[in-house]
Every structure is written in structure tokens, then in C-alpha cells.
Write a structure and sequence with these properties.
Elements (H helix, E strand, L loop, with lengths): L8 H24 L8 E5 L5 H9 L4 E4 L2 H12 L9 E4 L8 H7 L2 E5 L2 H10 L6 E7 L12 H10 L6 E8 L11 H14 L10 E3 L6 H6 L4 E4 L1 H4 L6
Parallel strand pairs: 1-2, 1-8, 2-3, 3-4, 4-5, 5-6, 6-7
Helix pairs in contact: 1-2, 2-3, 4-5
Length: 246
């Protein structure tokens, strides 16, 4: 199917149904925690998904998209936005590791960077974000202390916030984490609670004045994350289905 043509019902209808189902699960999880479902933002993780599927998700009401790769996003954005018709332009979020040498391109593609983990990257983003609103940033936390994962140890987050306190073009608004993988969503609960506790602790520290958001929870465990305070959940498979070639 050409990316310039209209979306087919074969593409749109399954995604619309899955988006509705995920939103209902979000609402149920929020109610269990005595929270307003409107407090939880659904991010469609669209990495390696074709533009037609991504456009279908936008037309189904997805307003935030998560991507992992700068080059893929640069190629995909115009193709997606040509397909969405009158639907509002989505906000694009970087949820993969960002190399400092790609910051110049990234600030023009993304509305938010969820993987800030060092002052050198923050300074480069500050330098490159010359126009528009300040760039929203989340600090990525290695909440389960896994050596193979990106992100800061909990003990180093306060130092990064303080180092970023004087930035004007980058505003740190939240924390992001991916707990250790487990087949049982309940195994992630303690990590989600720990991230919430860290955010609450750091709100009163230098650089933590705008620290309100928690990006945590994916297709396998987002309901537990919501019960523990997630304000952003990053959902891929449960919206888009398997990635092509996966």
C-alpha cells in the first residue's frame, strides 16, 4: 500500500479496536487506584511500524508517539503526517538512547526526550534547541540496577537535576524507567513504586521544581504501572500488533 494513498479499513479498524481496548484497560486500572483516567497519557510506541499503521493510530485518537531512532523518525514523520488528514499532529517522543552527536537533528524532530541520562547531552540539547517552546525532558533511571541497561542509578539522579537547574531551553518534567523483564507484571510493582518515591523525593531538590511525570509501563505491565502512579504509559504491541518481520 502506498504511503500517499488513503488508509484502508483493513489497516484502520483493527488498530482502532485495539486503541479502544487499551484505553478501557487504562480506565479500569486508574479506577482501581482511585485515579482519574485522564491523568494517564497513552503513548503509542511506533518504532519500526509502517507509516500506515502509525497514521491509523493517530486517526484513532493517539496523540503521543514514541520512537527509538532518529533516522527512522526523520524518514517516517512526513509520510505519517501526509496520511492523517484533519487529525491533529501528534507529539513525538524519543524513548530510545540518544547520542550527543544526533542532538541537533533530534531537537527538530521530537517534542520530548525521555532518555536524558547525562549533563553533556542536556547541554547539547540546550545549545541546539534555539526556537520554539523549551524541550520537555525526562531523566531515564535504571530502576532495577541492570548493568546492560541505559539510565542513571537512583543515587545519581539528584546530581543531574542540580546540574541542569540553570538550563533555559530544556525543562526536566519527569522520570522514565523500564523495570527488569518478567513474565509476571506484579514483579514490576516494586520498581514502579520506587520510581514514584524517587520523583516525590526529588521534587523539592534543585532542578526538580517541574518534576511531575512518571513514564513507566508497557504492553505487558502498564496496568500495574498505573496503579503505582504512572502518568505516561508506552504501549506498542497492544496497539499496533507485532512489528513487521518480528
Amino acid at each position: 500500500m502506498s504511503s500517499e494513498g488513503p488508509l484502508s479499513a483493513e489497516v484502520e479498524e483493527p488498530i482502532r479496536e485495539r486503541v479502544a481496548a487499551v484505553r478501557e484497560r487504562i480506565a479500569q486500572a486508574a479506577r482501581r487506584a482511585d485515579r482519574n483516567p485522564a491523568e494517564v497519557t497513552l503513548v503509542g510506541v511506533s518504532k519500526r511500524q509502517p507509516p500506515e499503521r502509525v497514521a491509523a493510530a493517530i486517526r484513532a485518537g493517539i496523540r503521543e508517539l514514541g520512537e527509538n531512532y532518529v533516522q527512522e523518525t526523520r524518514d517516517k514523520q512526513p509520510r505519517v503526517e501526509a496520511l492523517i488528514g484533519d487529525s491533529p499532529r501528534p507529539r513525538w517522543r524519543m524513548i530510545g538512547s540518544l547520542q550527543r552527536n544526533k542532538a541537533r537533528v533530534a531537537v527538530g524532530l521530537f517534542d520530548a526526550i525521555e532518555t536524558l541520562d547525562r549533563i553533556s547531552l542536556a547541554n547539547e540539547l540546550e545549545k541546539r534547541r534555539a526556537e520554539g517552546e523549551p524541550l520537555s525532558a525526562f531523566v531515564q533511571v535504571n530502576i532495577s540496577d541492570e548493568p546492560q541497561k541505559s539510565g542513571l542509578p537512583c543515587s545519581e539522579v539528584a546530581g543531574l537535576l542540580e546540574a541542569c537547574a540553570g538550563l533555559e531551553r530544556v525543562q526536566i518534567e519527569g522520570l522514565m524507567a523500564v523495570p527488569a523483564a518478567s513474565a509476571d507484571p506484579e514483579q514490576s510493582r516494586a520498581a514502579f513504586a520506587a520510581l514514584r518515591g524517587l520523583r516525590d523525593e526529588l521534587r523539592g531538590r534543585p532542578g526538580g521544581e517541574h518534576l511531575a511525570e512518571l513514564s513507566m509501563g508497557m504492553s505487558s505491565d502498564f496496568e500495574v504501572a498505573i496503579e503505582e502512579g504512572a502518568t505516561f504509559v508506552r504501549i506498542g504491541t497492544a496497539i499496533f500488533g507485532p512489528r513487521p518481520g518480528a
